[in-house]
Specification:
This protein is an alpha/beta fold. The chain has helices at residues 57-64, 102-109, 126-132, 166-175, 199-214, 225-246, 248-254, 261-268, 273-296, 323-328, 356-372, and strands at residues 8-14, 26-30, 68-73, 115-120, 135-138, 158-163, 188-191, 219-222, 299-303, 332-336, 346-351. Strands 1-3-2-4-6-5-10-11-9-7-8 form an eleven-stranded mixed β-sheet.
Length: 386
């Protein structure tokens, strides 16, 4: 393991508990996931030295299918935005890997494991995947079990995975017993006007759309930028309201020792039931609206982040490109965009709730098209590594 990246809380391989399509495949588990006999510290110094007594259901499932739990990956305290972890981005050690699933994204990007588990409440899988140049997939809300995973906001919390490529992700999904779907051909959607982005992401996203159109892919413009901005605000209201009440007892016990989480609790407790209900109603309205869009464009393309990974470790980045889709409960995947130089950038694909196989298969198809056209991203080595 590369000590300069700091992707791990603990590395202590655990034997598999069964046999299956994942036999001998090592994986990492985010530190907010319970793991029997391994560190389970929730990313917080308050719980330093805490050892798990059971496996989270998702960890238990992978081990029963033959996978080997290699260890626990770093995450921000309680899977909140801050403070940042010591984990560095393998593509450039001076930049953040994103969060809160920092260690899982970095471990896959550095080639330490082929698979790692994460969670997403705003953008904690898709954004780190974009920053680190790997594939990150967030399943449909409620499809995968959250038992044994520390909650942050129960109507948003969703399991996710990191792999090197979308083909790897599809293979993992199938190996877990989920349907892999079938090949389909349909029009894709893309936002017009564009959401507010940094120049590098705006250029890379538009270039990707041009590339796909030149290959004969039908891409229809959809007017969703305004809705996504309002959805991001609504998702924040839900997150703060629910997160404050989940962590209120912990705040009463530890107070300022919770660091940045104290802001979540204090601000969230000020949100009224009426404000929370209004945000939930808006999200429900948008679910119906977007479901109609998916009938014409079954997969919608959006940037996976506002730009490349920020410099330094003080911030884990901006989740505005992911939070709306988390609130909608849709499956979403980030795959690397073709970039001639500089830090990685991700293309996010979304589909209607329950269409996980569709979004995975489309991601595989689009990445293959990029490579056939000679612009597909190869595996970017970690800075200073061969």
């Amino acid at each position: 393991m590369d000590p300069s990246i700091h992707a791990w809380v603990q590395v202590l391989p655990q034997t598999s508990t069964g046999n299956g399509k994942l036999s001998e495949i090592p994986f990492g588990a985010k530190d907010i996931m319970e793991t029997r006999g391994l560190s389970t510290e929730y990313g917080s110094p308050i719980y330093k030295g805490r050892i798990g007594t059971v496996d989270a259901v998702i960890v238990r499932d992978l081990r029963l299918r033959g996978a080997i739990l290699l260890g626990k990956t770093q995450c921000t305290a309680f899977a909140w935005f801050a403070p940042a972890t010591p984990t560095r981005n393998p593509r450039d050690l001076e930049h953040t890997p994103g969060g809160s699933s920092s260690g899982s994204a970095a471990a896959v990007a550095a080639g330490m494991v082929p698979v790692a588990l994460g969670t997403q409440t705003s953008g904690s899988v898709l954004r780190p995947a974009s920053y680190c140049g790997v594939t990150g997939f967030k399943a449909s809300y409620g499809l995968l079990p959250m038992e044994g995973v520390l909650p942050l906001a129960k109507s948003l919390d969703t399991l996710g995975f990191f792999t090197h490529t979308p083909a790897d992700m599809l293979a993992l999904w199938e190996a877990m017993g989920h349907p892999a779907g079938r090949a389909e051909d349909f029009a894709l959607g893309a936002p017009e006007p564009m959401p507010e982005l940094e120049p590098a992401m705006a250029a890379a996203f538009q270039n990707a759309l041009s590339l796909l159109r030149s290959a004969g892919v039908s891409i229809r413009s959809i007017d969703i930028a305004g809705m996504l901005a309002k959805l991001s605000d609504a998702a924040k209201t839900v997150l703060f309201y629910e997160g404050a009440r989940i962590h209120q007892q912990r705040f009463n016990e530890y107070g300022s020792r919770l660091a940045d989480l104290t802001d979540l609790v204090q601000e969230g407790l000020q949100i009224s039931v009426e404000g929370y209900d209004e945000a939930r109603r808006y999200i429900a309205e948008c679910k119906a609206r977007v479901a109609e869009m998916y009938k014409a464009t079954p997969v919608i393309l959006v940037p996976a982040a506002t730009g490349p990974a920020p410099l330094g470790l003080a911030s884990t980045g901006d989740a505005r490109m992911n939070a709306p889709w988390t609130a909608l409960g849709t499956p979403a995947i980030s795959i690397p965009l073709p970039v001639p130089s500089g830090l990685p950038l991700g293309l996010q694909l979304t589909a209607d709730h329950g269409q996980d196989a569709r979004v995975l298969r489309t991601a595989v198809r689009l990445q293959r098209m990029q490579r056939m056209l000679g612009s597909g991203p190869g595996r970017v080595p970690a800075k200073g590594r061969p």
